[in-house]
Write a structure and sequence with these properties.
Elements (H helix, E strand, L loop, with lengths): L9 E10 H19 L2 E4 L3 E3 L6 H4 L3 E12 L4 H15 L8 E8 L3 E6 L7 E4 L2 E10 L3 E4 L10 H20 L13
Antiparallel strand pairs: 1-4, 1-5, 2-4, 3-4, 5-6, 6-8, 7-8, 8-9
Helix pairs in contact: 1-3
Length: 192
């Protein structure tokens, strides 16, 4: 019989997607709010053109740009739901008068084995976390192949550019774990 143990926390990541004009006027205040919620940022990509789907253009506008962030402070794996609920509140605070979003915030947790994103939508492969939030197993990591797409992996996460960025974040996370820069006993304590 196995003994349940608390896993190491993961690296919190966040995709920020918005129209070009939004970045000029609203990025700095949102960034400050994100730091208050999730701690210091230790990775921030430049603005990346987002042209993988037209899904968001009706609501957010076009052209769209993404910025990928990662946070220094590690997050318990069961904290993904709370991350999504917090980013939903930030989206609402940024919304237009009619309630439509100006920005899309997609949080996730990266570990050595996988990238899991949070979603407010059910689908066959998603696992319910509570409060209307689902966990989406987006990519898995294989030592021989690197990041492996799954049949439902979003096209933007399946690109080589994104996988290179996630590999860099995985290395940063691995260094943190190996250095022991985590809370005492995490990954070692048996569950009650």
């Amino acid at each position: 019989m196995s003994t349940p143990r608390e896993p190491h926390p993961g690296k919190a990541v966040l995709s920020v997607l918005a129209q070009a004009a939004w970045w000029e006027s609203r990025w700095v205040p949102l960034h400050e709010e994100l730091v208050k919620l999730f701690g210091p940022v230790d990775y921030k990509s430049g603005l990346l053109a987002f042209d993988h789907t037209g899904y968001y253009e009706d609501e957010l506008g076009a052209p769209l740009f993404r910025r990928l962030l990662a946070f220094e402070r590690l997050t318990p794996l069961d904290g993904l739901k709370d991350m999504k609920l917090a980013t939903n509140e930030l989206e609402r605070a940024q919304a237009r008068f009619d309630g439509s979003r100006r920005v899309n915030l997609d949080p996730g947790i990266l570990t050595l084995e996988r990238l899991v994103l949070a979603s407010g939508k059910n689908f066959t492969h998603r696992v319910y976390l509570g409060c209307g939030i689902w966990a989406d197993l987006t990519l898995i990591y294989n030592k021989r192949q690197g990041w492996v797409d799954l049949p439902w992996t979003f096209p933007d996460y399946a690109t080589e550019d994104m996988k290179r960025r996630l590999t860099a974040l995985r290395s940063l996370y691995k260094t943190t774990i190996e250095a022991g820069d985590i809370l005492p006993n995490q990954g070692e304590q048996p569950c009650p």
